[in-house]
Write a structure and sequence with these properties.
This protein is of the alpha/beta class. Helices cover 40% and strands 19% of the residues. It is built from ten helices and nine strands. A six-stranded mixed beta sheet has the order 5-6-7-3-8-9, with helices on both faces. Strands 2-1-4 form a three-stranded antiparallel beta sheet, with helices on one face. Helix 5 (156-171) links the parallel strand 6 and strand 7 (176-180). Helix 2 (85-95) crosses helix 3, helix 2 packs across helix 10 (250-268) and helix 3 packs across helix 4. It is globular, with a radius of gyration of 19 Å. Residues 227-274 have low confidence and may be disordered.
Amino acid sequence: MLSIEHLYFSYQGQPPYVLNDLNLHIHSGDYISIVGDNGCGKSTLLRLILGFLTPVKGSIKRDTNNIRYVSQKNDFSHAGFPITVKEILDSYRKLLKIKDKNEVNRVLELTNMTEFKDRLISKLSGGQAQRVSIARALIGNPDLIILDEPSTGIDRKNQEGIYSLLCELNQVYHITIISVEHNLEMALANSTNIYHIANGQGHLCSPEQYASEIMHSTGRNPMDHENCACFTDVTTQAQAQAQANDTISEEVRRSHLHFSIMSMYRYFHGIASL
């Protein structure tokens, strides 16, 4: 599915490297959570996988181009356009030139958002908006979905619903998932493997092995909900730091927002030819 070999990267194009000799092989059906401290290079790795950045050395080989990306901040929940869930998904279907009009109903059903299809995007809760982001990513039956901190800004109940949905997509529909995570509790509970980045280098292991390593180094069980706050950036300050240091750049997000919202609005209202 995806092979990363001896990858080196720095924004200056020379040492010191942000990512140093990374090796990672992701197979079809994997659910990989990428974890590590803020600023360790998790989102940089996502940019490299998505092709936004180019390695200084090494290679990234993909067996598929049918890849979708779900950003940490959904890029339409604050849109001022009076556009509904179904309209925005149908516009995206048209952008992808998918002729089957039932595709929108299919992804709404998969994400349990059918009853909200006629609701304005701006009226959705954070959890509902994230489900729409995932529904949009599902249009066209992707082989791989890449997510950047899918639980950010969502209450615990809706977090559990989002991760239950991701598990279903992975286990039932065999969609490969790569997710950058600060929510270590959910990462350990749902992933097939954990990829931990520290000091520019990566380490792949099972959730059980990673939990054991944390217990050995801290004396605390990360699977214990009360302890998870010690390992998860859940405070307002930590989330703000994470958003500043370790997410897809705001400039990229805003340009994507402008393109996607304006394109969908034009398509839906017949301003652009289909």
